Amino acid sequence: MTQVHTVRGLTKLWRPISSGSDTSARPxxxxxxxGYEPLTTRVLEARGLLNEESEKFLxxxxxxLHDPSLLPDMDRAAERILHAxxxxxxxxxxxxxxVDGVTASAxxxxxxxxIHPEARVITYIPHRIDEGYGLNADAIRSLAxxxxxxxxxxxxxxxxxxPAMLARDLGIDLIITDHHNGAENEAxxxxxxxxxxxxxxxxxxxxxxxxxxxVAYKLAWRLCTMHAASPRLPQHLRDLLVxxxxxxxxxxxxxxxxxxxxxxxxxxSGLPRIRTSPFIxxxxxxxxxxxxxxxxxxxxxxFSLAPRLNACGRLGHAREALELMLTDDPLRAAEIxxxxxxxxxxxxxxxxxxxxxxxxLAAESGMLxxxxxxxxxxxxxxxxxxxxxxxxxxxxxxxxPTILLQHQGxxxxxxxxxxxxxxxxxxxxxxSPHLHTFxxxxxxxxxxxxxxxxDAFRDAFTSHASRLLNPEDLIPRVQFxxxxxxxxxxxxxxxxxxLLAPFGRENPPVRVRLSGLRVSARPEPFGKAGAHxxxxxxxxxxxxxxxxxxxxxxxxxxxxxxxxxxxxDALVIPKLSTWSGLVEPELVDLQPG
Length: 593
What we know:
Number of domains: 3
CATH topology of the largest domain: inorganic pyrophosphatase (n-terminal core)
Shape: globular
CATH architecture of the largest domain: Alpha-Beta Complex
Number of strands: 19
Structural class: alpha/beta
Number of helices: 20
Strand content: 15-25%
CATH class of the largest domain: Alpha Beta
């Protein structure tokens, strides 16, 4: 039989269920399952969503968001900011250069000017290459010279002890809002006026996984209610907070936080507002991405909008992305959006070149051997702004935590990306004697070290990964929810499964396994350069056409060598064609049947 297996691992997603699972076994689940198609019921059961709490997941509402005052130091921070705004003391919003930092900065800037149009608001985003990530002393000094009385960080600052001490010495009230991993003890936190962080030591906040824009949104909400002295807001502030959900959703999706809990509420509410946003720059970005006629989902953000916003931070300066989110000039918005598209095209070219070179170096260095479970590489000519996203590509290709470094003056600066189950921040903490600085979270981080420490750091990091990871942890696995038949894939069932959207980290798209199918027609390439394939499968008298996006390029042997009559199992994402409305699932994987 022709080999059509395309991945090395296959596991059930969520907890196993039998094909004859009795949903009435759980109290109340039978009643909750009424009205659902059989496939929908099995998927909901597999994901533990046939219970009394499932309504919050399937129908998230803004009322499900937690009171922002529950965040540590929230009221102290909001009171100080409002006083500064009312008395026209300069307030500097200090953001990060990625999408999360840019959208967080825009959320606070728009909120402050809406509350106090006369407020003196300064926005500052460091240059990725010249200044690096996070608060830095030179920026603190320049903001002090500009008269800043308050500096509010967004999406950064939780490890900035030195800059916080400098701000204090200069008489600046520093308010840190962040979500990255920080000190485990209260005494080791930076000496700031206030620190608003959902996972701050001692925090009782009910949801730990907000992104930077999510924390900024909570601060914006509290600024509004404190200014109004009531949870009932004036109409213009209520409308603003609703529209700012679009920016918060962008930040959450781009930062790949779990799309559960409050993040799910924010993204579910914010996504539909992106295309019709009153923010001129956001609409210009949508148009430049050719999405102005489409429904925008998490894929559109992740593959079109976010890369454009990130592009200027990677190859230029992210202040242009922030200007786009704040401008009210349609001509300037269109100009910036075009520039970001051009930069993103350049970024893709540079990214591809570095990725190919890095894979070659990894192979030559023996880092792809079975007994080596991490990649650490450095190259003087790699672009600092792109190596982070190249790390992600190498993780996808190799299944290994990856760190890439580039020479930056007298230092090596770089980024890392990880795999599920391996905390990059914890690994760097253990290797910290070899590092100058580092920061981030479990899945992504930035770091600096001197060139003479590279070999020792590489040995320490790869040894740490080898101790904690087993060979099977590096095997790419395709997961699925449950088994299904072609008969189960009804338009109604697929529409019901859309209740599980938005999809993302910890809430992946629904995948089902169709077993014992036969290929009833040769794969048919379509699209630009025949990059995609259409495959017709048969189960008894029923047939089904599935779409393999980019299969002709990603799996050329599979796409070209499946004989008619081959028996296979297929993993698919149930979908309806946007053109015809017919059932046309997306192909994920094939295995011999």
